[in-house]
Design brief:
Chain A is built from 17 helices and 21 strands. Chain A has helices at 16-27, 68-73, 105-113, 117-141, 153-167, 171-182, 185-190, 196-203, 219-227, 244-258, 301-307, 316-324, 364-375, 421-439, 443-446, 455-462, 514-527; strands at 9-12, 32-35, 48-51, 54-56, 83-85, 88-92, 98-101, 230-231, 234-235, 239-241, 262-264, 269-275, 278-284, 289-291, 294-297, 331-338, 356-360, 384-389, 403-410, 447-453, 498-500. In chain A, the strands form six sheets. Chain A has a seven-stranded mixed beta sheet, with helices on both faces. Chain A has a five-stranded parallel beta sheet with strand order 11-2-1-15-21, with helices on one face. In chain A, β12 and β13 form a beta hairpin. The model of chain A has no long low-confidence stretch (mean pLDDT 96). The longest helix of chain B has 12 residues, at 204-215. Helix content of chain B is 19%, strand content 31%. In chain B, the strands form four sheets. Chain B has a six-stranded mixed beta sheet. Chain B has a six-stranded antiparallel β-barrel with strand order 14-17-16-15-18-19. In chain B, strands 5-6-7-4-8 form a five-stranded antiparallel beta sheet. Chain B is globular, with a radius of gyration of 21 Å. With 401 residues, chain B is α+β, with helices and mostly antiparallel strands. In chain B, α2 (38-47) crosses α7 (225-234) and α5 packs across α6 (204-215). The chains are: A alpha/beta (534), B alpha+beta (401).
């Protein structure tokens, strides 16, 4: 009886990191079970057919930071991996003009020159300078970070290697790196650009998922993090996976299953079972107990350390660090089913500008003002919107001639002053729709269906604490050596056999998969020290 | 001097080409791409449907009481097994068993065929017709050809003519699009589900309009040469003067290839059981019996870690540009012995790997064999591992389903 309830590894959470982790463990020959609370895998990376024929990427909506190693090592193309290029970026201005960038650098330079001749080659320089920073940091993404408080020779050796790596960088690259990690996106961008629309467009990636404005210290790090993504070798380039990110997590599930992992749906975990200082299995909400010497939490740090185990089983300083770990989700989604493609007043009858992101954030001031609302506990009255009409990229997302449009919205702070999200849901949706309408007059007439996703929904449905899409904010004190806490950034926990592999571990969120992969390396290395982590 | 010509679809396609970039194909203008991103058009082929103007292909109508017997002796693949309403990809060879060219033959009736070719072949075909009751007419200019390629192609074309829904791989059928007579074949050069529409030149624009109307809402795009040439490498479809040369116009045997060397012995399965005389038969049989083939044509998949390593080692970001490289790249064993070369090379967005079509010595042709590919990075030669694999490199079930 206990035989079929005993595994070599149990992964809690069937989001993309749980699936990646489970796939690697199964690939290494471990009898692996992945437990998912909901009726489908994917976590925040799901696609749902909310209206017949219309497929919504309810939460996460594009792919960029997924590590290429995972694509190859898990043989994802065999299982249907298909990242479709998002070729265009469209940024309407407040005066009815637009900036439309495509895949030709020289043409883009001419388009930027319509707004500022100065900014045309400045963009080229900016792209190169940030790519060099990404090039320098990329090796850190694909390795288990050193333990800064560790005392054994391996830890010290790894810290020395890190220091040597940084010391080997050209001085400008190292300095740009520090400026981005510690400074504001505004300071960095002001150094290159003069035009509002260019700065609005570029600064938008400095606030995604984070409670910062472009002028806040720390927004540079968010900008840099998003630049680290790559599609087909180009940093900062995005793709739309066939069938949305739900299509992607289905690919991961097929890969995991092909390696022998078992996936159990509708299986909410109540507690990690421990014996002494060691994890021995999990207890499901329905009382079922499942056993394994390796238990991996793909949930966020709060749930991993405060809910799945008794905090008293952990050192007080770790509990203290997790208690102060900042989530404060600040993003929402409004997804639309549309009767036809919207039109921009300056481009009647043209639709190709929608083959990528449409960026409603026409200036740094606009985005900073949107942040002002959030600072004082309210959602933006003129929000920043990252829209994507995904059916223009993958026609299978909507019926012929119809469209689905995913709108990522900031700011939508988790904690509202003197109200709550259930009360504000409709007004929030109206605010977003009115903002889109102001840039695309007539938009409202196209709306067939609207889905409003608040930070509270993200928390309730996906399980991400406070609705933070990265399972913990991207702040320097919560990254790399300190994600989620100093000393516990190597996917282990103080409980032997209990590991963490969610986006709350290094490197972080964004459908990157690196936490799941690196945690698997650590688990396999601990299991068989000869084959080691790297 | 003759001026460059336009195809029967040009009037419709020219305004759609927003790049101003055109290629010349058999003396005709064809678009390289219709908008700035080749990958957008590539994904139209792989995820929606593409309209590709293939009109410049040379087309020969072959009729007469001896048409079947004539073609059975000229073409290496046995055309007698091609029924009415069927098509065959085929090659023709010279007496020494070297490949002259390749093309698709369609059979309409017992003695009524059309053969396509990349280069002019009328003199070649006519010279071989002596003694046969056969008429060979160059109908290249009489027909436009519009390829509709991609997962949505069946649904779109079946909405114009329901019989297309049941059309099998390498079958063709007469149909009417908006009242205009066409022939639709389940053929193409992309390795995906796809069709080619053959239409009399004067009716081409009407048929184009009908296809465009039926495509509405399906994310169908006009697609240029660049994206088609990307998809054909993944599909393992050889290109004349890139992956092989015509023996007819070669100076040396080194430039020539045999069917076995091009991976086309599957066309010759009838050799042991039939005595059909065809040009090159004896030489091909000798080559197969004696094992004298110099090459095998194979797919190659580049080791991604090594690709990244050699570029990162030079301080560069590893390029993953899908633009095909048509220059030859050399292949070696681990010991540095030269054992072949690539003829087409690209980064495949759907397989997420650098791929090549190439030739290796026959004893190294089995799948999984590791070879070393020479690449030039930062002005220096490097080698990266590549694995030999079978062609096609990408082969979705929908292609033949």
């Amino acid at each position: 009886m206990t035989e079929d309830r005993t595994y070599e590894a149990i992964v809690i959470g069937g989001g993309h990191n749980g699936l990646v982790n489970g796939a690697y463990l199964a690939r290494a020959g471990m009898r692996t079970l992945i437990l998912e609370r909901r009726h489908m895998v994917g976590g925040a990376a799901i696609t749902e057919e909310l209206v017949p024929g219309f497929h919504f990427t309810t939460f996460s909506y594009a792919l960029s930071l997924l590590r290429p190693e995972i694509i190859h090592e898990l043989e994802l193309p065999k299982h249907g991996f298909m990242p479709i290029q998002m070729s265009d970026t469209f940024a309407p201005t407040e005066d009815g003009d637009y900036l439309w960038l495509g895949s030709d650098r020289e043409l883009n330079a001419k388009e930027i020159a319509r707004h500022s001749a100065h900014d045309a080659d400045a963009l080229h320089q900016f792209e190169l300078d940030t790519a060099r920073v990404c090039q320098a940091l990329k090796p850190l993404l694909d390795r288990i970070p050193p333990n800064i408080v560790g005392t054994d020779p391996d830890d010290l050796g790894q810290l020395a290697e890190l220091a040597a790596h940084l010391r080997g960088l050209p001085p400008k690259v190292l300095h740009d790196c520090v400026r981005l990690i510690t400074g504001s996106a505004a300071d960095f961008l002001d150094d290159y650009f003069e035009s509002d629309i260019v700065k609005g467009l570029l600064s938008s990636s400095s606030i995604i998922g984070s409670k910062v404005g472009p002028r806040s210290q720390g927004s540079g790090l968010v900008l840099l993090y998003h630049k680290l993504g790559e599609t087909d070798g180009t940093f900062g380039s995005w793709a739309f996976h066939k069938g949305g990110n739900g299509g992607f997590t289905q690919v991961l599930a097929r890969a995991a299953q092909a390696y022998g992992a078992e996936i159990m749906l509708d299986a909410a975990v109540d507690k990690v079972i421990t014996s002494g200082d060691r994890a021995t299995g999990v207890a499901l909400a329905d009382g079922t107990e499942l056993y394994a010497p390796v238990v991996v939490s793909a949930l966020d740090p709060r749930r991993t350390f405060m809910e799945l185990v008794d905090p008293r089983q952990l050192p007080t300083d770790l509990v203290d660090n997790i208690r102060r770990f900042r989530f404060q989700g600040t993003s929402g989604k409004v997804n639309f089913a549309l009767d036809a493609l919207p039109e921009h007043p300056a481009l009647p009858g043209v639709g190709d500008q929608f083959r990528g992101f449409t960026n409603i954030g026409p200036s740094m001031d606009y985005i900073e003002r949107a942040y002002d609302d959030a600072k004082y506990g309210w959602y933006s009255q003129r929000p920043y919107i990252d829209a994507c009409i995904q059916s223009t990229i993958d026609p299978d997302m909507a019926p012929p001639g119809k469209h689905v449009m995913s709108c990522f919205v900031q700011y939508a702070p988790y904690a509202l002053r003197e109200s709550d999200w259930d009360a504000e849901r409709v007004r929030f949706g109206d605010t977003v729709q009115a903002t889109i309408e102001s840039f695309f007059p007539g938009f409202g007439d196209l709306v067939l269906h609207r889905e409003v996703v608040t930070p509270l929904d993200i928390e309730r449905v996906v399980g991400l604490s406070e609705g933070n899409i990265f399972a913990g904010e991207f702040l320097a004190p919560q990254m790399y050596l300190f994600r989620p806490a100093p000393g516990w950034n190597q996917y282990r926990t103080p409980i032997a056999g209990y590991y963490q592999c969610g986006s709350g571990t290094h490197p972080g969120g964004c459908v990157m998969g690196a936490p799941g992969r690196l945690a698997a390396q650590q688990i396999l290395g601990d299991r068989d020290p000869d084959r080691s982590g790297s | 001097m003759a001026t460059i010509r336009t195809t029967p679809f040009h009037e419709r396609l020219a305004p759609l080409n927003r790049t101003g970039l055109w290629s010349h194909w058999s003396g005709h203008l064809v678009s390289r791409k219709y908008q700035m991103s080749d990958k957008v058009e590539y994904f139209a082929i792989r995820d929606a449907a593409a309209l590709i103007d293939t009109s410049p292909l040379h087309k020969y109508r072959i009729t007469g009481a001896d048409a079947e017997r004539y073609l059975a002796g000229v073409l290496a693949r046995d055309v007698r097994t091609c029924g009415d309403g069927e098509a065959q990809y085929t090659i023709w060879c010279d007496d020494r068993g070297h490949v002259v060219e390749d093309g698709v033959v369609m059979r309409f009736h017992a003695n009524d065929f059309m053969l396509t070719a990349a280069e002019p072949n009328l003199a070649y075909l006519t010279a071989l017709a002596t003694g046969y009751d056969v008429q060979i007419v160059d109908v290249s200019d009489d027909y436009g050809a519009l390829a509709v390629q991609g997962p949505r192609s069946r649904r779109i074309l079946a909405s114009l003519a329901p019989e297309i829904d049941q059309l099998g791989y390498f079958e063709h059928v007469p149909a009417k699009f908006a009242g205009t007579a066409v022939t639709v074949s389940r053929t193409g050069y992309t390795g995906d589900l796809g069709y080619e529409i053959w239409v009399e030149a004067g009716d081409a624009t009407a048929v184009f309009d009908a296809v465009v109307e039926a495509s509405a809402g399906h994310s169908v795009r006009p697609v240029g040469q660049n994206a088609m040439l990307m998809s054909r490498i993944e599909a393992g479809l050889l290109l004349l003067d890139v992956d092989f040369r015509s023996s007819r116009f070669a100076y040396t045997d080194d430039e020539r290839s045999t069917p076995a060397e091009l991976g086309m012995t599957w066309m010759l399965r009838d050799l042991p059981t039939s005595d059909r005389p065809f040009i090159g038969r004896r030489a091909i049989e000798r080559e197969l019996a004696d094992g004298t083939s110099r090459w095998r044509t194979v797919g190659l998949v580049v080791d991604w870690r090594e690709w990244d390593r050699v570029h990162a080692g030079e301080g560069l970001i590893p390029p993953k540009d899908a633009t095909p490289i048509v220059a030859e790249m050399m292949l070696y064993t681990d010991d540095g012995e030269w054992i072949g070369y690539t003829t087409s090379f690209m980064y495949s967005p759907i397989m997420q790997r650098h791929l090549a079509i190439g030739r290796v010595r026959p004893h190294l042709a089995s799948s999984g064999t590791a070879v070393q590919l020479e690449v030039t990075v930062a002005h220096r030669y490097h080698t990266v591992s590549a694995n030999v694999t079978r062609l096609p490199l990408y082969n979705p079930p929908r292609k033949t389903a």
